[in-house]
Amino acid sequence: MMIASALGPVFLLILLGAVLNRLDFPGRTYWPGIERLTYYVLFPALLIHRLALTEYAWSILPPLILTLVLALGTVSLLILLTRRWQARDGAALTSVYQGSVRFNTYIGLAAADALFGPAGLAFAAIVLGLKIPLVNIGCVLMFSLALGDARLDWRKVGRELGTNPLILGCVIGLLLNFTGIGLPGWSADTLAFLGATALPLGLLAVGVALAPRALGGDAGAIMRASGFKFLAMPGMLWGFAALLGLDPLMQQVLVLLGCLPTATSAYILARQLGGNATLMANLITAQSLLAFVVIPLWMWVIL
Q1: Taking the model in full, what pTM does it have?
Q2: Where does this chain mainly localize (predicted)?
């Protein structure tokens, strides 16, 4: 009952976004601007506010980083070793990989806040700050292996990681915390106001991006990627976190962030780097719908 009460509003906001998109309200040209505002301003404000003001045991960083590296590395290795069975060609393999490891930040932060409160949200922000560059590097390496180095501009990849607003928000927040500067004057309240709007607008944007009518194509690839995403990734994060001694709350947050559906940004990367964009679009929609069932099930198991 607690899980349903916490996650119910999260999923209802996603459904509301889908309904608004269906009604074309307030117009399809409205949402891209809102998503940019959320991504570049509101979510970074939320991350800076929570990370700058939360007390941390900095000793958790080594086992946390190792947990993320081991889980991502194991899934990546499994996909590479079974690549003949995962996809019919290199382009499809990159989409299966992205569907296995990428995650929707909006849903993750909203669910962490709803389930675990401020402490869970702050830890989720740290995890995302570490996981975003790791996953992006893994995806670029997979494109390189599957499609050839000629398709990749590594300097551009480095610039994109270095200017990612979510990574920058995490770095700024942690630096303000570590140096003891915090958020002086009106900055804390200002960032709190901005951050409060990030989660609902982000969830509405997820709903707007859903395209159930577009579902189709390679059902086998969708199932295989979703198996890695919803079973292997959260299971490995849980196992490695327990093995390395992370406390129960950290384990729970890691599992939650491990079973999130694939991010919509995966479609953009597939188009830019020569992946199978159609398969990627189908994976994003299918996993976003599956998440309505999978996330509550995992939370029931671990809580």
Answers
A1: 0.89
A2: membrane
pLDDT digits (tens, 9 = 90+) for 96-114: 999 999 999 989 999 999 9
Output the 3-class SS for the chain: CHHHHHHHHHHHHHHHHHHHHHCCCCCCCHHHHHHHHHHHHHHHHHHHHHHHHCCCCHHHHHHHHHHHHHHHHHHHHHHHHCHHHHCCCHHHHHHHHHHHHCCCHHHHHHHHHHHHHHHHHHHHHHHHHHHHHHHHHHHHHHHHHHHCHHHCCHHHHHHHHHCCHHHHHHHHHHHHHHCCCCCCCCHHHHHHHHHHHHHHHHHHHHHHHCCHHHCCCCHHHHHHHHHHHHHHHHHHHHHHHHHCCCCHHHHHHHHHHHCCCCCCHHHHHHHHHCCCHHHHHHHHHHHHHHHHHHHHHHHHHHC
Q: Residue 226: what pLDDT?
A: 94
pLDDT more than 70, % of the chain: 95
For residue 17, pLDDT over 80 is answered with: yes
- For residue 126, the Cα-to-chain-centroid distance in whole angstroms is 12
Q: Amino acid letter at 125?
A: A
Neighbouring C-alpha atoms within 13 Å toward the C-beta of 293: 7
> For all residues of the chain together, what is the average pLDDT?
88
Task: Show me where the domains of the chain are located.
Answer: 2-302
118-146 average pLDDT score: 87
> Residue 295 phi/psi, 5° resolution?
-60, -50
Q: Which two tokens stand for residue 47?
A: 């991350």
